[in-house]
Amino acid sequence: MKKLLLALSVLLGGIGAAAHAQPAANAGMAQNDVLLIVDIKPVAAQVAKNLNVEATRIPLTVQAPLEVAANACAIPATVLGAQGGAGAVGCTATATSPALEQLVKTRLLQQ
Question: How many Cα atoms sit within 13 Å of 83 on the Cβ side?
Fold first, then answer.
C-alpha cells in the first residue's frame, strides 16, 4: 500500500510540475514573436564578407526576433524584452551571428 501511495504521489507531482512549466514555455514563445529593429551598420562589413556580397548591399537595419537581437547587441533578452516590442525598440549590433546573417540574406533575396 505504501508503495502504491508513493508511486501515485510521484506521478501526481510530475504532472503538477509539468503544469507549472507550461506557462513559462508559452511566455518564451511569445517573446520569440517580438521583432526588434537592429542597427547592423557596425557589423555590415563582416556580414557582407560572410555572405559574400558587396557591403553596399547590406541594409542599415533589420527586424530580428528578440533572441537574435539580444545576441547581436550583447544585451540580455530580458532587458530588451522589457523595453517594449513590435519594432518600437531597437539596439545596435556589436557582433554578427548565423541567425542575423540569415535575416540579412532573406532581406537581400526580397529586393
Answer: 17
**CA-CA-CA-CA torsion for 21, 22, 25, 27, nearest 10 degrees?**
-110
What pLDDT, in 10s, does the model give residues 60-94? 999 999 999 999 999 999 988 887 655 566 899 99
* Whole-structure pTM value: 0.67
Number of residues assigned to the chain: 111
Q: Which of 42, 34, 47, 45 is nearest to 84 (CA)?
A: 34
Cell numbers for 30, please give them.
511569445
* String of DSSP letters for 14-77: HHHHHHHHHHHHHHHHHHHT-EEEEE-GGGHHHHHHHHTS-GGGS-SEEEEEHHHHHHHHT--H
Cell numbers that stand for 23 in this block = 506557462
